[in-house]
């Protein structure tokens, strides 16, 4: 797998990702596949939850199936097989907005540097990109736009909110001007 | 029209820089063809049979004179001196060089234009009624809502990689000139029992390989909830739309397979679940959007119409143009004037740089500095005082833009066809030219009246043949060009898909087949009865007989 990126730059992976056949070791910051997780007995799941566990989900997992379980995990790794398949953007957006998931969400696999910004806006905070990419392309992609029309999970400068602010300032200014006059 | 502020401008400029970098990475081999494809498509760039094609967005068909002059400059500087208006109100250039596309985008940005989301599997340019704001049958102006939708859809983080392309059309009038029933989402402005403004929401219409009429999923959506409801529909589609087969990936297939009722339930549930308050339009936002579309200062009727009656009586050619190419304006003393891009021997929708400059000049002088593009691949000067019509007509004539044929047989809608498009099976533009040859005089054309001919070079239906009164579809039979005819389609209110007439006709027989349809109409019609009404009244039988002879007609 390629390098890890957090929003502020490259990092190393502090999680391990054992195959479904491998044993899980307590306290090792491991992730399990969603299919393995759903097959585990309940007491085993509770034990793992207590120790801290992450999950790996496919990009087409149904939010209705997965959403309410999300809070069990410290990290959700979304495995992206095809970069043109945009289902995971809706998945992650809903994990944040609808299920109020507060943990880490990582995109792993076939994502282009050009998609990182929208991934971030939908709720991802880590990326693990397949293939080689220039660090500069990634930095550029994440710094290119300063404001957007839509609300998003980043709560960054939003054009609608900024315009509202400007309109209110203007009203206040006009009000002061007429009071002064 | 909508005036950019610094936020709009900064965003478009950032998009230009982004695409510039993407193009350089592609040329340097850092992006593969497969990776570059969706990136270039969502910025309007196709790789076509002969050269790249760049589609420039004309949001809901509205352009200033200055913008049109820039379109002329681009045609001259980067292309072969002309552009092509599409059926979705955009303009495309067929011959730019890949390396020069970033420069084109920079030039467009100078006049607040771009190519954002004019192609690709994302939310496309929002289209509307080309007579918005001036039509006599309008309940409310759709353009402020189109602009709000444009902004919401632009670089939406969640919906840039949809299963397939997604088209939204908005109409605010009694007559549907925006084809809302054949769009992924069609919005019709309406009022509720208390007189509040809102939208009727249709979903799942479309043409292409599986043509369908949109289904009503909400009879009243308050205007403030426009964006949140769109978000709910798109979220359902993004998650559940098919991705295994591109021909089954449009929202219409999802709506059909779930049933409109079940689909509506999913949307309502999603709508309840999402954070509506973040997307809710405030009264101030709606007022601000509306303030971008003020009516120009109109003259009083007697002043606006001065001398007009004399010209009308004195010049028959002018009178014919007036009858065919102008329409009633909601303000007395004014007319809506169509600029025909359907001259004989000219590809439907094509326009030269010289013509673009000429119409920009006319708009500046006579029509509130604005031009509109139509679904019918023509242009509109929406606010012309009657006293200026004669001068407008004379200048249009000089540029071969005054063919008096709006909504008649020769006002053909056509896709680019085999000569330009790598998907096409058959020629489209040469067929359009042959149709021009079917009538010998303007009297004859006027007598035939309202006939909408639409030609698609393949089943992807870019020429909208399904909703042509006469639809012509190019098909490939063992490497030869054949054409399938349909009859009785329309994209207006109570939209209908044309009925297949019979077996395909060969390339050399298509003009004669259309002539036969016209002859049947002339025989069968009642006094003043338009073509479509005759087709509806007598059915396809007599037309079948006319085209294929008695033997086939059973």
Structural description of this entry:
The complex is a heterodimer of chains A (181) and B (554). Chain A has 181 residues and is of the alpha/beta class. Chain A has helices spanning 34-39, 42-51, 63-66, 87-97, 116-122, 135-143, 159-180; strands spanning 4-6, 9-11, 31-33, 54-58, 75-80, 104-109, 126-129. In chain A, 38% of the residues lie in helices and 17% in strands. Chain A has a seven-stranded mixed beta sheet with strand order 2-1-7-6-5-4-3. The radius of gyration of chain A is 21 Å and the shape is elongated. Chain A starts with a strand and ends with a helix. The model of chain A has no long low-confidence stretch (mean pLDDT 89). With 554 residues, chain B is α+β, with helices and mostly antiparallel strands. Chains A and B meet through helix 4, helix 5, helix 6 and helix 7 of A and helix 1, helix 2, helix 6 and helix 10 of B.
Give a nutshell description of this structure:
The complex is a heterodimer of chains A (181) and B (554). Chain A is α/β, with parallel strands linked by helices and 181 residues long.
Low-confidence stretches of chain A: none
Give the strand order, joined by hyphens, for the main sheet of chain A.
2-1-7-6-5-4-3
Mean pLDDT of chain B: 95
Structural class of chain B: alpha+beta
Fraction of residues in helix of chain A: 25-40%
State the order of secondary-structure elements of chain A, H for helix, E for strand: EEEHHEHEHEHEHH
Which residues of chain B form runs of ≥5 with pLDDT under 50? none
Map the helices and strands:
The complex is a heterodimer of chains A (181) and B (554).
Chain A: E1 4-6, E2 9-11, E3 31-33, H1 34-39, H2 42-51, E4 54-58, H3 63-66, E5 75-80, H4 87-97, E6 104-109, H5 116-122, E7 126-129, H6 135-143, H7 159-180
Parallel strand pairs in A: 3-4, 4-5, 5-6, 6-7
Antiparallel strand pairs in A: 1-2, 1-7
Chain B: H1 6-27, H2 33-41, E1 45-47, E2 52-56, E3 62-64, H3 65-78, E4 82-85, E5 91-93, H4 101-110, E6 127-128, H5 143-153, E7 168-171, E8 185-191, E9 197-203, E10 215-222, H6 226-240, H7 251-258, H8 260-273, H9 276-279, H10 283-290, H11 301-304, H12 308-314, H13 316-325, E11 326-328, E12 334-339, E13 350-352, H14 353-366, E14 370-373, E15 379-385, H15 389-398, E16 413-414, H16 429-436, H17 442-448, E17 453-456, E18 470-477, E19 480-487, E20 499-500, E21 505-506, H18 510-524, H19 531-538, H20 541-548
Parallel strand pairs in B: 6-7, 7-8, 16-17, 17-18
Antiparallel strand pairs in B: 1-2, 2-5, 3-14, 4-5, 4-13, 8-9, 9-10, 11-12, 12-15, 14-15, 18-19, 19-20, 19-21
């Amino acid at each position: 797998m390629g390098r890890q990126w957090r929003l502020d730059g490259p990092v190393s992976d502090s999680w391990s990702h054992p195959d479904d056949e491998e044993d899980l070791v307590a306290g090792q910051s491991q992730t399990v596949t969603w299919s393995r997780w759903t097959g585990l007995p309940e007491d085993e799941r509770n034990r793992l939850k207590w120790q801290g566990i992450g999950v790996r989900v496919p990009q087409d997992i149904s939010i209705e199936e997965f959403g309410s379980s999300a809070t069990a995990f410290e990290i959700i790794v979304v495995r992206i097989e095809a970069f043109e398949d945009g289902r995971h953007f809706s998945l992650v957006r809903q994990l944040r907005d609808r299920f109020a998931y507060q943990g880490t969400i990582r995109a792993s696999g076939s994502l282009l540097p050009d998609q990182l910004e929208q991934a971030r806006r939908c709720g991802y905070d880590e990326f693990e990109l397949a293939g080689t990419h220039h660090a500069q392309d990634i930095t550029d992609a994440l710094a290119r736009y300063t404001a957007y029309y839509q609300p998003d999970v980043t709560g960054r400068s939003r054009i609608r909110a900024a315009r509202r602010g400007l309109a209110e300032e203007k009203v206040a200014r006009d009000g002061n001007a007429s009071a002064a006059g | 029209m909508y005036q950019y502020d610094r936020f709009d401008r900064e965003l478009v400029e950032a998009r230009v820089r982004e695409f510039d970098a993407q193009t350089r990475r592609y040329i340097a081999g850092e992006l593969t063809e497969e990776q570059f494809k969706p990136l270039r498509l969502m910025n309007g760039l196709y790789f076509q049979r002969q050269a790249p094609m760049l589609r420039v967005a004309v949001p809901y068909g509205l352009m200033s004179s200055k913008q049109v002059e820039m379109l002329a400059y681009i045609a001259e500087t980067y292309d072969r001196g002309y552009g092509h208006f599409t059926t979705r109100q955009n303009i495309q250039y067929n011959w730019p060089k890949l390396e020069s596309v970033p420069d084109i985008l920079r030039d467009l940005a100078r006049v607040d234009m771009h190519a954002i989301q004019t192609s690709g599997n994302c939310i496309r340019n929002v289209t509307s009624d080309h007579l918005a704001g001036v039509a006599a049958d309008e309940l409310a102006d759709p353009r402020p809502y189109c602009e709000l939708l444009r902004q919401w859809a632009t670089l939406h983080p969640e919906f840039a990689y949809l299963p397939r392309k997604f088209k939204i059309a908005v109409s605010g009038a009694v007559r549907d000139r925006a084809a809302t029933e054949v769009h992924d989402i069609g919005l019709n402005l309406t009022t509720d029992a208390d007189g509040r403004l809102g939208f009727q929401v249709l979903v799942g219409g479309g043409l292409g390989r599986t043509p369908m009429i949109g289904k009503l999923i909400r009879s009243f959506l308050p205007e403030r909830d426009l964006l949140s409801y769109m978000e709910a529909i798109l979220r359902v589609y993004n998650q559940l739309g098919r991705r295994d087969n591109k021909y089954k990936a449009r929202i219409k297939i999802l709506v059909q397979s779930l049933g409109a009722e079940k689909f509506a339930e999913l949307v309502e549930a999603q709508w309840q679940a999402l954070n509506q308050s973040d997307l809710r339009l405030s009264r101030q936002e709606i007022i601000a959007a509306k303030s971008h579309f003020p009516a120009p200062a109109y003259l009083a009727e007697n002043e606006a119409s001065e001398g007009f009656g004399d010209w009308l009586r004195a010049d028959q050619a002018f009178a014919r143009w007036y009858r065919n190419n102008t329409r009633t304006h909601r303000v007395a003393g004014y007319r809506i004037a169509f600029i025909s891009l359907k001259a004989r021997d000219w590809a439907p929708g094509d326009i030269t740089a010289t013509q673009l400059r000429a119409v920009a000049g006319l708009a500046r002088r006579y029509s509130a500095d604005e031009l509109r593009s139509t679904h019918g691949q023509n242009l509109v000067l929406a606010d012309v005082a009657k006293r200026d019509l004669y001068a407008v007509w004379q200048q249009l004539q000089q540029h071969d833009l005054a063919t008096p044929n709006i909504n008649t047989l020769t006002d053909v809608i056509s896709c680019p066809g085999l000569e330009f498009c790598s998907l096409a099976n058959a020629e489209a533009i040469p067929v359009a030219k042959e149709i021009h040859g079917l009538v010998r005089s303007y009297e004859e054309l006027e007598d035939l009246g309202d006939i909408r001919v639409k030609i698609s070079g393949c089943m992807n239906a870019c020429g909208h043949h399904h909703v042509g009164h006469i639809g012509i579809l190019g098909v490939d039979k063992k490497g030869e060009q054949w054409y399938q005819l349909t009859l009785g389609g329309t994209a207006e209110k109570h939209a209908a898909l044309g009925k297949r007439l019979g077996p395909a006709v060969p390339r050399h027989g298509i003009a004669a087949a259309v002539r036969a349809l016209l002859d049947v109409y002339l025989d069968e019609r009642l006094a003043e009865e338009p073509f479509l009404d005759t087709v509806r009244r007598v059915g396809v039988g007599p037309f079948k007989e006319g085209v294929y002879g008695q033997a086939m007609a059973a």
